[in-house]
User: Which sequence fits this backbone?
């Protein structure tokens, strides 16, 4: 009866800012195993000049990914690549810790690319040269997120996104249209609510975790100024958006607890909510359960300057700058994530629903070439927003606390978000200073 | 014994050799423990202290000295200070409750003459359960916010509305967290109290009985005062443990989407800002643990002072 928690980190990509604490368990995954520690690693000594590389992935939820990436690694002609399929629930921390040791990976994937601290500490190599002409082909906001001071530090592997699922039949029965504004979302959520089905669900915390940054973007604001010098979210448009969300939150149309969380399709397919904020990764299960009786939409806008929005992100391939064979590692990353477009399409398309990170590959990924998948891909290109690299855990904690205080306790938004913004500015100063 | 000694090889200077042997055995037994203590406790503590004065992000050998900057950052951080408030709430609930329950259980069990070992073991058993596992059971089964959670099923059978236990409303999560910790630790402190009770001379009770003391009067005038040593130790351990709260909070409240912005004791908050999302801010994290150590130390000394007044004649 309990919801199956088979979510993978790739599926999750807590793109909207919840990205700061993604581990499900506190269990300290003692992931000390460098792939080179496996028996096959000794092949480097017998293989002559061919270097040995250790490549780390987190555990993907979909069947077949592990076999595919290991096969591709084995196909690489210029180095022996040992794949470490990390089972650690806290993969991010495992990588960060490993990078301080001699057992560090040469190549690793990281959610939304390496952190700014990794870049500043010189732990990751500059990959600008290996991206080369393909630069314009990668989705611009994504590549921008992986770039610092004009240098690219990660190559996006495949794109995941969050979006609004709605049940067509429930909306039409209540004579409602797909909501495009926050006010409409509240109206529709309440109109479709019956004794059998709730209105809108976005997680067991009332959506405050996953929608935290979405509320900034839907108000037409950004997290930071374009020069990354100051926090720009603290504005009346945000107060207004959050106040509207509070109205929805306090209404009967809001489903605050369900059999699954926002990142699982259970609440939606079990008829616990007619609308659910979820991930593109849910689409196969939603399709299987509901057939054509569902549609997808971006998060509604708020206020005059507001915009509809979908948050998205990607795991990025990075190279350990302090590894033994940095050039060989870069060459491998170029081969896999820049040159081998067939493999990139397969990575996005063969194991669940994902969008290729390169626009030229959209047409080759049949799952996003038509139907709701195509609609989702279009939403990403037109309305996609990526969490800023400067949105640090401390900033996130301050902002999340402010949001919760306003929505749950009814505190004054101006006072709360001003305090959060001053923390965000202090963080910017700390990082830039 | 004499035979055993006589088969030992004779040394030219028995006194010196004995002393040397003793020293050797001392180090043979104490050495490994001491080395472990040094390596895994004192060096990390020292290193933490060192790191706390540096901007140590993604490095354990920092070069950017910031003096007391990390301390100032945390002490002016409202969320860190409010996490201290969270601790106070938690400690204010869990310390007296565990104290009362474990003492009560110990007193009750002392009177049980039938299957005493069984009852003692039963109450002690939860101590052996992992905090992580217990948190999972509490969160997924007992206090699941959905309608099918055990607690909600019971509420519904009574005609009440289901409660979203961990959703943050009405502070219901405190009920979950406190009951969890209580279940896990009450057995351990019960054993400490049983040991304390057993150390009280039965003659004192006999004398009291002769004087006509019964029931609560015996507890108030004899048992409790004579348990003072144990009580002080238990209260101090409870307080320190409450300070170190992390496991059950994190495992009960953290989801794949993140940790909610409430019920964050200091260690959870430090973890979130130091290691959240792959961040590795060892300077801030270390400064935070140093502040906590200092606070625990001050609290313990104060508590010891207050509770132990007059304990030793």
Assistant:
């Amino acid at each position: 009866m309990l919801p199956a928690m088979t979510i993978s980190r790739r599926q999750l990509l807590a793109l909207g800012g919840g990205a700061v604490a993604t581990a499900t368990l506190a269990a300290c995954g003692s992931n000390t195993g460098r792939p080179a520690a496996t028996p096959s690693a000794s092949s480097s000594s017998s293989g002559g000049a061919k270097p040995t590389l250790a490549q780390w992935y987190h555990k993907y939820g979909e069947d077949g990914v592990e076999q595919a990436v290991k096969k591709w690694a084995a196909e690489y002609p210029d180095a022996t690549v040992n794949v470490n399929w990390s089972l650690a629930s806290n993969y991010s921390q495992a990588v960060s810790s490993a990078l301080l040791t001699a057992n560090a990976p040469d190549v690793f994937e990281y959610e939304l690319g390496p952190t700014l601290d990794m870049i500043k500490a010189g732990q990751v190599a500059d990959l600008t040269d290996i991206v080369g002409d393909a630069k314009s082909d990668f989705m611009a906001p994504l590549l921008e997120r992986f770039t610092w001071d004009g240098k690219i530090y990660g190559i996006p592997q495949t794109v995941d996104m969050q979006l609004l699922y709605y049940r067509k039949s429930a909306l039409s029965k209540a004579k409602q249209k797909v909501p495009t504004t926050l006010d409409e979302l509240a109206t529709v959520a309440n109109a479709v609510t019956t004794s059998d089905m709730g209105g809108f669900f976005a997680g067991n915390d009332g959506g405050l975790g996953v929608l935290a940054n979405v509320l900034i973007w839907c108000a037409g604001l950004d997290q930071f100024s374009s020069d990354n010098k100051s926090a720009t979210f603290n504005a009346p448009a945000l107060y207004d958006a959050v106040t509207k969300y509070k109205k929805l939150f306090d209404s009967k149309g809001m489903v605050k607890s369900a059999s699954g969380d926002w990142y699982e399709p259970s609440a939606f397919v079990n008829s616990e909510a007619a609308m659910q904020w979820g991930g593109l990764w849910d689409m196969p299960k939603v399709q299987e359960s509901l057939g054509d009786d569902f549609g997808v939409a971006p998060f509604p806008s708020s206020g005059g300057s507001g915009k509809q929005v979908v948050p998205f992100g990607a795991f990025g391939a990075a190279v350990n700058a302090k590894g033994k064979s940095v050039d060989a590692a870069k060459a491998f990353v170029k081969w896999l994530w820049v040159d081998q477009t067939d493999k990139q399409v397969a990575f996005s398309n063969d194991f669940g629903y994902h969008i290729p990170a390169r626009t030229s590959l959209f047409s080759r990924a049949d799952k996003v070439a038509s139907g709701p998948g195509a609609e989702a891909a279009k939403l990403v290109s037109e309305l996609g927003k990526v969490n800023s690299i400067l949105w640090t855990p401390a900033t996130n904690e301050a902002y999340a606390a402010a949001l919760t205080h306003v929505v749950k306790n009814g505190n004054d938004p101006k006072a709360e978000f001003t305090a959060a913004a001053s923390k965000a500015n202090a963080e910017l100063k700390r990082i830039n200073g | 014994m004499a035979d055993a000694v006589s088969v030992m090889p004779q040394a030219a200077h028995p006194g010196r050799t004995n002393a040397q042997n003793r020293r050797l055995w001392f180090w043979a037994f104490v050495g490994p423990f001491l080395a472990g203590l040094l390596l895994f406790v004192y060096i990390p503590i020292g290193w933490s202290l060192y790191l706390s004065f540096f901007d140590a992000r993604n490095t354990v050998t920092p070069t950017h000295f910031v003096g007391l900057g990390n301390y100032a950052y945390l002490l002016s951080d409202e969320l860190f200070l409010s996490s201290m408030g969270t601790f106070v709430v938690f400690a204010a609930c869990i310390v007296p409750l565990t104290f009362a329950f474990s003492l009560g259980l110990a007193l009750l069990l002392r009177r049980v003459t039938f299957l005493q070992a069984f009852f003692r073991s039963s109450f002690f058993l939860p101590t052996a359960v992992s905090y992580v596992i217990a948190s999972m059971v509490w969160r997924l089964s007992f206090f699941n916010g959905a309608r099918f959670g055990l607690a909600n099923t019971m509420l519904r059978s009574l005609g009440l509305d289901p409660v979203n236990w961990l959703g943050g409303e009405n502070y219901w999560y405190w009920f979950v967290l406190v009951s969890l910790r209580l279940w896990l630790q009450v057995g351990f402190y019960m054993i400490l109290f049983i040991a304390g009770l057993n150390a009280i001379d039965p003659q004192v009770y006999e004398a009291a009985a002769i004087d006509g003391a019964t029931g609560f009067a015996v507890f108030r005038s004899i048992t409790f005062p004579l348990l003072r040593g144990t009580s002080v130790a238990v209260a101090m351990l409870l307080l320190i443990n409450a300070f170190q709260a992390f496991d059950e909070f994190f495992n009960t409240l953290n989801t794949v989407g993140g940790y909610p912005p409430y019920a964050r004791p200091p260690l959870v908050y430090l973890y979130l800002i130091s290691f959240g999302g792959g961040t590795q801010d060892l300077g801030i994290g270390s400064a935070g643990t140093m502040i906590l150590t200092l606070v625990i130390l001050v609290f313990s000394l104060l508590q010891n002072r207050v509770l132990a007044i007059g304990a030793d004649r």
